[in-house]
Structure formats: C-alpha cells, structure tokens
C-alpha cells in the first residue's frame, strides 16, 4: 500500500510540474510572438448564446490522445 501511495505522489507531482511548465511555456511563446493554434480545430464544439459560451474541444482532445498514444507506443517499443 505504501508503494502505491508513493507512486500516486510522484504522478501528482509530475502532473503539477508539467502543467507549470506548459503554463510558463505558453507565456514565453506568446512573449516571443509565436501563437499556437491548438484548441480551435475544426470539430471542436463552440456554442455562443446571449450570456453563455460553451466550448468543448472534441477534435483537440482526439489529436492530443493520438499524439500521446503514439509517443507512449514508441517509448514502449524502444524500451524492449
């Protein structure tokens, strides 16, 4: 049980670190004038009403999932 708790803490810390790096990286890229277009892909759902905006990044999620799957598959293949 202690081993699982340690792994969960490590995964949580890695997620926090990764989100911090992505946050800082986005600000650095914006400062340098580089604009990333990920998040407004065709297939993303955007509904605008009078006092309501709903955004569901369906296609963006699929693209990120495919990229992460490919990277993890490659890492698993190289490890063997």
What does this 3D model show about the protein?
The chain is mainly alpha-helical and 80 residues long. The chain folds into 2 domains: 1-36; 39-80. The chain has 2 helices and 2 strands. A two-stranded antiparallel sheet has the order 1-2. The chain is extended, with a radius of gyration of 18 Å.
How many separate structural domains?
2
Low-confidence stretches: none
- Describe the oligomeric state of these chains in a short phrase: single chain
SS element count, helices: 2
Query: What is the helix/strand order?
Result: HEEH
Helix content: 55-70%
Give me the count of strands. Answer: 2
Share of residues in strands: 5-15%
Question: What is the mean predicted local confidence, pLDDT?
Answer: 86
| Helix/strand class | mainly alpha
Distance between the termini: 28 Å
Report a brief summary of the structure:
It is built from two helices and two strands, in the order αββα.
Topology at a glance:
Layout lengths: L1 H31 L12 E4 L4 E4 L1 H22 L1
Provide keyphrases for this structure.
mainly alpha; 2 domains; two-stranded antiparallel ribbon; 66% helix; extended
């Amino acid at each position: 049980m202690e081993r699982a708790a340690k792994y969960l803490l490590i995964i949580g810390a890695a997620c926090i670190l990764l989100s911090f790096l992505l946050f800082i990286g986005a600000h650095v890229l914006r400062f340098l004038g580089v604009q990333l277009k990920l998040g407004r892909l065709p297939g993303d759902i955007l509904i605008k009403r009078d006092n309501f905006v709903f955004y569901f990044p369906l296609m963006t999620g699929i693209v990120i999932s495919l990229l992460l799957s490919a990277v993890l598959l490659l890492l698993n293949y190289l490890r063997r």
